[in-house]
Structures are given as structure tokens and as C-alpha cells.
Amino acid sequence: MFTSRHLSQTTARPPPCTDASLAPMSASPLPGLRAADSPPKSAERPLGELPLTVLVGVTGVGKSTALAALQATDAALKVLPDRREVTDAVMIWPQAGGPVRDREERFRLTALYRQAHPGGMAQALGSLLADTGQWGEAPVFDGLRGEDEVRYAAEHFPRWRFVALGAPDPVRVRRLLGRGDRFDQIQADGAEDLRAALGGLTGSAEVFTAADLDALAGLVSEGHRAEDILAKTKIVVSERRNYDPGAAEAVLRTLPSERALILDTVQFSPEQVGAAVRAWATQP
């Protein structure tokens, strides 16, 4: 049996933020979405006012499984442009003047954006106007990360609901090695002595134990290339430097169960995760 881990208390929430200046759009357009720099048209609504379902989690925790489960509950469900696309349009292009593929550089640019916009992706997304003729009245977004984004969304957008997925960092590295996503690119030098290179990654000691790093280095014996192991580990370390999944989950546990579902995707199989998400999404 699956239940969300939560507390029954609710917290006071300030009015929704709709400051269009917080999410400037760029030369990389998002279809059916725009900054609120002019009055909304008849079919346009601020995303911050719509009952979004928002996936929460860092890379490699199983958000694709949860998204598929949500889509299975409603064939007409609309999925907004994902985090990468919104990040490109709102955060990356305005600073870099074009696309950036390297994830380490993307983390750097998004961190700069958050210095001026503490709500990060939540603040950017919630201020956009959506064409409901294209995106419907209750779309899904993938996704938010970290305490600041989740807290901002929970406090400013009371109609949003959240599905949070979690997995240990070593598991995330293994999943990244297996998924072959062309977006998972990062510059990683020094793979000749893999164990030393893993230990030498800035911040790796704060994310992985020595035993974890030994096990990751041992993945070479399973057929993975040393440079791939180092690159995927660097992605996880870089991401954890910017986002704390545990702190984000702690915020969601303060919400009532109808607003937040939290699942460990190692404890449950993909089929069980899907069943839990479908049951939660269709509850009265």
C-alpha cells in the first residue's frame, strides 16, 4: 500500500506572485507561453493560478515513470515544456545569447539567475501566461528541484500539487549511465585513474562516502567506460551542489496529502510508483 509522507498541518501562504519582470522571455520561444508584459488574452491564464501538477526531483530519480502514470490517468492531459526548455528560454538564452549544452555551465548560469530570483524555476514558471486552449486548465510540469523552488511554489501558488521522487545519489549515477540521454553531457577529464578522479571531484566528499566512490569506480567491471562514470558522477555532484532533495521533501511534508505525494523510487518498483501516482492523482 502506498501513501504520501506528509504532515497534516498547512502553512499560511502569501498571495500569488505575478510579476512578469521576474521571468523575461528570450529569443528561444515557448509555444503558448509568454511573459505577462501585456494584458492576457481571453484564453490566457497565469500558470501561477492554474491547478498544475508539478513533478519534483533531481536527475535520475524516476520522474519519467511518474509522468507516464499521470498521463495514463487522463489521455487529454497536457504536459508543459519541461524544465530544460523553460530554463533555456528564461535563464540560459538571456545570459549566454544562445544554447548551452554542458551541464556544469548550465548549473552555473541557473545559479546566477537564482541570485536575482530566489524562487528559481517556480518563480519563473508561475509568472508566465499560458494559452489554455493549447495547454488546458490543469497541465503538468516537469519539474522543480530543491528547497527554495519548492517552498516558493508551495507558498505562492496554492493550487499547485506536487509529486516528489527520490533516490540515493549512487543509484542516480547508475541510472544516468543506463539512460543514454544526449542532454547528460559534461566535461570530465582525468578518467585514467578513475577512483582518484572521483575522489578529486569538487564536492564529491559531501555527496558520496568513500565506499560509494569505491563502488562507482567498480562499475568499470560491469562494462561502463571510466570517462562515462566520471561524467555522470560529476553531474550528480554538480546538481547536489545546487539542490538539496531532502530539504525539498521536508517542505512538501508540511502540506496536506492531497497536495503532495512523496515516493522513494528505490523502495518501490516502477510499476508500484506508477500505481501510487495514479491512485493519488485520481483521489476525490
Automatic annotation (TrEMBL):
* Location of region: Disordered: 1-46
**Composition skew (Polar residues), residue ranges:** 1-12
Show the InterPro entries listed in the entry. Answer: P-loop_NTPase
Any idea what this protein is called? ATPase
Q: What is the taxonomic lineage of the source species?
A: Bacteria, Thermotogati, Deinococcota, Deinococci, Deinococcales
